[in-house]
Amino acid sequence: MIPENPYDPVLEDNVTAYGKDAATDLVTAAADQATQDNASDYGIMVAQAKPAAPGGVPAPAREFKKQTCDKKALGVCLREYQEGDNKYRIFVANSSFDDIDLTVRLSAIENLEVSRKADKIDVDDSEIHKFVIKPRQTGTDEQHLFDLTKRDKSAKVVGYDAIPQEVHRGNPNATPDGTLYSLPYPKGANDNKGYKITQGFGGQGTHQSKSAVDFDMPADRDVAAARAGVVADLKGDSAVEGSGNESDKDKWNFIRIRHKEDGTVAIYGHLKKGGVKVKIGDQVKLAQVIGVSGNSGYSTGAHLHFEVAVADGQGRWKATNPNWKFRDKDGKPLEPKERPEPYKNE
Fold first, then answer.
1. What does the H/E/C string look like for 211-259?
2. Which residues contact 40 (CB under 8 A, 6 or more apart)?
3. Could you report how far apart the first and last alpha carbons of the chain are, in Å?
4. For residue 263, what are the domain limits?
5. What is the pLDDT of residue 39?
6. Strand order in the sheet with 76-83
7. Domain total in the chain
8. What is the pLDDT of residues 293-315, one digit of tens each?
9. Taking a C-beta distance cutoff of 8 angstroms, is the pair 141, 81 a contact?
10. Which residues, in sequence order, are CB contacts of 141 under 8 Å at separation 6+?
11. One domain for residues 80 and 164
């Protein structure tokens, strides 16, 4: 079910993605944002006419027409408005804290001119438009996509259909900016001995094609943010531990943090059930303790999986190019490798 009215108490998609309480917060924030927008530039339901332009003619009122949300429940909705008799405006609302790789399909276009020409692909009787949508900042920010304007203003017949055809997490155009990462545990950890890397980049185990490392961290140890960012996704309630079944890959507990400077993400995995100490949307500082290590999901023993990744344009995460590096105690690049000596966080 896709509600037509953005004031509906709880969007079903958001309940699926975030849980009822979080979804209620998202929709409340959206309603608050909509109230502000009615008095400014967006207009949910029927906005008041804008102040008169020079010459004394008021700008057309903007009327909310329709909302269509993505079927993956990522918190992305197209919002359509009519402005006066001759213009339709298309916005997108992103209630997630991820960049969103969005493909919009426009079809059944009748007597309307589309304002956006760049990156358009014609397929049969449809137009395909691709966008990278910024993460939610406050409430559920609306971002303008394009307008449709009447060609023949004397004609009454107009028509179009707009749907979010593909919606994926992450910015497929993200490029690592060369930031050096801190070790993902507090200074002085493990009696100042640190932890060994037992599997490095492209490892023969589970790290093939990944920019990831495994630390031999026992359970119940603090995990710290290797770089500042915003918590975009997490899971902390999985009771599956030490599974040898590859089908349990998605049953790990993890935290994924987005780095706003370059759009990369850091993933901290195999955390303990109940060991996630942050919430989606939290601003995380460098070296902040964010979780507790464990052995959840597909794992042969307690350890910390740490990965830096970029979106692949298909809803998955892939290795960065070039590969990221840690920062040593002198601030110089430190390439993570399997070796007998542990990595101390000094």
1. CEEEECCCCCCEEECCCCEEEEEEECCCCCECECCHHHHHHCCEEEEEC
2. none
3. 53
4. 197-334
5. 29
6. 62-69, 76-83, 87-94, 142-150, 112-114
7. 2
8. 999 999 999 999 999 999 999 98
9. no
10. 33, 93, 94, 134
11. yes
